[in-house]
Fold:
Amino acid sequence: MTNNSEYIRQEEATRVRILSEALPYIQKFANRTVVVKYGGAAMKESSLKEKVIRDIVFLSYIGFRPIVVHGGGPEINSWLDKLGIEPQFKDGLRVTDAPTMEVVEMVLVGRVNKEIVSLINQAGGNAVGLCGKDGNLFQARPEGREGIGFVGEVSSVRIQLLESLVSGGYIPVVSSVGADDSGQAYNINADTVAGELAAALGAEKLILLTDTAGILRNYKDPSTLINKVDIQEARELIANGTVAGGMIPKVNCCVRSLAQGVRAAHIIDGRVPHALLLEVFTDAGIGSMIVASEFGHS
Structure:
């Protein structure tokens, strides 16, 4: 019994110490906007999903202003298969013809978005689901490449709706479907949407949850993780091939948001339990942080 009591006291002391050490970070980022792109394994595995949702609600409760942006590629593929539509990709982009666009909108806006909203509400948060069409949150235009259909990019952002929601204590959950002036819907990369929203809001942080440890000098070796780079270094890593494949659009998204005023962008491994809290509340973090300039950044 004595040993058990001692163990409990040690656990309580550890919990109190951790909370105390988190205080400077809580003070530093109070009332600051954090845009989280939610995707990868953290959306698919139930145990990870629960932890991410709880982390987002925790951030909201202690004074952060989280905004969640999500995609849903695997869920889209599953429904395309059910409907007998073969998924097609070109240059890493989903070829989105009219029937595929209908499925994308149905899945992202009608299913995935509402599931995330429901999970956040069940965890004690107050979430509201949106897409680019809601309040003209963001408008789309064609991405420009031939043969990819209704794949778009963000042409403009109206932040008033998001600002009203976060000021009222709500957590906006945004799906990456937008529309052009004529009302035509477009499928937009979720990383891109997250970056553009973060830039428009002047967010403190843009955080991309991925299925990699971050930016690696050797993509096969997680121990080669690069913890921190500035915009110039990030561009050099792309130019020399260190950043390649699917990491290129993620790093470019971060660079673009930083160039427009976001304080810091993070690429972190969503497969690590409580990755969000580890990145925000520790000096070392667990992923790669990109800043506008190494000089003068704290």
Notes: The chain has a mean pLDDT of 90.
